[in-house]
Amino acid sequence: MLCIVDAGLGNVSSVRNMIRRLGHDAELRSTPDGLGDDDRYILPGVGAYDEGVRRLQASGWFDHLQAAPATTHILGICLGMQLLARSSEEGELRGLGRVPAEFVRFRDTERVPHMGWNIVTVTGGDPLFDPSGRELRFYFTHSYYAVCDDAEISIAMTNYGAPFTSAYRKDNTCGVQFHPEKSHKFGMSLLERWLELPC
C-alpha cells in the first residue's frame, strides 16, 4: 500500500493528485494503524520544524516511521525531508533520525527563504532521478538545508549562494527539499521513478 502521511502538515492533496495522474492511488492516513514495513510512505510537509515533530508524535506516525526497518520505502518532501533527519536549527526537538544529517539556515544569500525554480544536479546516479543527463528543474520554498554526516548520502545538489544538498538517501529512506508535486514533468518523473523502485 502507498500511504501519504496526513498529520496536518499540508501538501497531501496535491501530492495525491499527482500520484493519481501517474495512474496510481495513494491512501491518506492520519494514523499508521494497521500499516506495516512493506507499505510505502510519503511524508510531505510545510511549516515549522518543531510543530511538525509534535504532530507526528501526537498521531503515532513518529514512532511508526522511526521504527520502520531500513528496507521500508519512505520519501520525505520539503519539511518531510527535514523531519527524517536528526535535528534542525529551526527547532529544539529531535527528528526521526533515519538520515544522519542536520538542517541549518541559509546565511550567505541575499534572500531567505529560497523560493522558486532552481536546477538540481544529480551527484551519485541515484535511481530516483532521470539518468538521461538533461537539466532538471524543481520548485523550492525553504529556509533550511541539509548538512549530511557523510557526503555519499547526498544524491543531488542545488546552488543558492553556495551548493547545498537538495536530495539525500539512506538505505530506502529518501528526502527531497523541493516540491515534486509543484514541479510539473520533472516532479512527475521523480515520483514515478520512486514508485517503481523495487521492494
Features:
199 residues, 5 helices
Global geometry: globular
- Order of helices and strands, N to C? EHEEHHEHEEEEEEEEH
- Report the uncertain regions: none
The number of helical elements comes to: 5
Specify the structural class.
Answer: alpha/beta
Roughly what is the average pLDDT, rounded to an integer?
96
CA-CA gap between termini: 12 Å
Strand tally is: 12
Estimate what percentage of residues fall within beta strands: 25-35%
Helix coverage percent of residues? Answer: 10-25%
Alpha carbon gyration radius: 15 Å
How many strands, which pairing sense, and closed or not: the largest β-sheet? Answer: 9 strands, mixed
Order of strands across the biggest sheet? 2-1-3-4-12-11-10-7-8
What order do the helices and strands come in, and which of them pair?
Elements: E1 2-5, H1 12-21, E2 27-29, E3 40-43, H2 49-59, H3 61-67, E4 74-77, H4 79-84, E5 87-88, E6 101-105, E7 114-122, E8 136-142, E9 144-148, E10 154-160, E11 162-170, E12 173-176, H5 184-195
Parallel strand pairs: 1-2, 1-3, 3-4, 4-12, 5-6
Antiparallel strand pairs: 6-9, 7-8, 7-10, 10-11, 11-12
